[in-house]
Amino acid sequence: MQKQGQQTSLQLELLHFQMRLHVFGCALRRARPLAVLDVNVPVEANAGPWSISTTFNLKSQEIVVGLSGKTFYAKPMLELKNISRDYKLGETVHALNNVDLTINEGEFVAIIGPSGCGKSTLLNILGVLDTPNSGEYLIQGQRADRLSRKQRARLRNEVFGFVFQSFNLLPRTSAYDNVMLPLKYRRGNSRDEKVRAVLENVGLFDRRQSKPNQLSGGQQQRVAIARALVTKPKVILADEPTGNLDTKTGLEIMDLFQKIHRTGTTIIMVTHNTELLPYATRVISMKDGQIVNDERKIHV
Ligand SMILES: Nc1ncnc2c1ncn2[C@@H]1O[C@H](COP(=O)(O)OP(=O)(O)O)[C@@H](O)[C@H]1O
Ligand SMILES: [Mg+2]
Predict the structure, then answer these.
(1) Tens-binned pLDDT, residue by residue, of the chain (300 aa)
(2) Where are the domains of the chain?
(3) Residue 69: partners with Cβ closer than 8 Å, 6 or more residues away
(4) CA nearest ligand 1 atom 14, residue
(5) Which ligand is nearest to the CA of 115?
(6) Atom 3 in ligand 1: which residue has the minimum CA distance?
């Protein structure tokens, strides 16, 4: 991908960017590409993941390279339409005030804003832990704001993985058993393999028998992330995941999130720490229950 500017991230004022495709006949046998193509890729305001398909006809030596239209334009993952959430404690608190927000598949969103501005309320509604007083909420195009408790629980389990500031691990339970927990209520085999693979992925396979109080804060958060990942969620919701960690450990957790994001998982993270914002592809600022700024970046 060619650089379009000096900065490492750009505003979406670009109309297109250029990428170079190297087409190999057989990766193992040929070190040199059969063809090099420069392609102009339009960047829509909501452009996100897209895929490239290549087909080879060895007989006619034809190479067909296609940018798949299906995933070329980002698909909405979560859509909030005019969402409000009030708390009535004597006087009414408008925790969320007519919020409109679409989050596309594959985004890495950071939500920032002062304490009490509604960040956790927003995250809880996105994760169907809470229901709005008014407005519509759609998950992959399906209404999610008027569901029964049971339906919401199922949706939560299917779509989301949660990571919290205080890790929320079961205290007298090993890392392995904490990660196994979300699979207890699921049918299907190879649960042991799944737990081992995900602990390996977060770098804690060797500590799988340790209990939370035998692990550092960063390690505990890795266990929590493994627990969130073990069900292969489409979306990770993280509420101040580095809030209880020192800067260096926090950045290690962000590296892990980045690795997870690169596998195609959508990540939505609330944070106070502006040092973490470069990891996100989009930064949403909130104030008094509303979104006051929304900025997308492209990493080039
Ligand atoms: N369960 C609750 N009961 C009453 N008020 C609440 C509750 N949860 C949040 N609030 C209020 O809603 C507003 C937004 O809170 P919250 O979403 O937790 O903010 P943030 O996460 O940005 O700090 C605050 O004024 C808070 O006091
Ligand atoms: Mg909060």
Answers:
(1) 344 433 343 333 444 555 566 555 544 444 565 566 655 555 543 444 445 555 555 555 555 555 543 334 468 899 999 999 999 988 999 999 999 999 998 899 999 999 999 999 999 999 999 999 999 999 999 999 989 999 999 999 999 999 999 999 999 999 999 999 999 877 777 899 999 999 999 999 999 999 999 999 999 999 999 999 999 999 999 999 999 999 999 999 999 999 999 888 999 999 988 999 989 989 999 999 999 999 887 543
(2) 9-72, 76-299
(3) none
(4) 118
(5) 1
(6) 87
Cα-Cα-Cα-Cα dihedral sign, residues 271, 272, 275, 277: positive
- Counting ligand 1 atoms within 8 A of each CB, the residue from 85, 86, 91, 93 with the most, and so the one to mutate, is 93
The class of domain 76-299 in CATH terms is alpha beta
Q: What does the chain come to in residues?
A: 300
**Helices (H), ranges, 2-143:** 69-72, 119-126
Counting atoms of ligand 1 from 1, which one is nearest the CA of 114?
A: 22
- 126, 291 Cβ separation under 8 angstroms: no
| CA-wise closest residue to 268 among 300, 222, 233 | 233
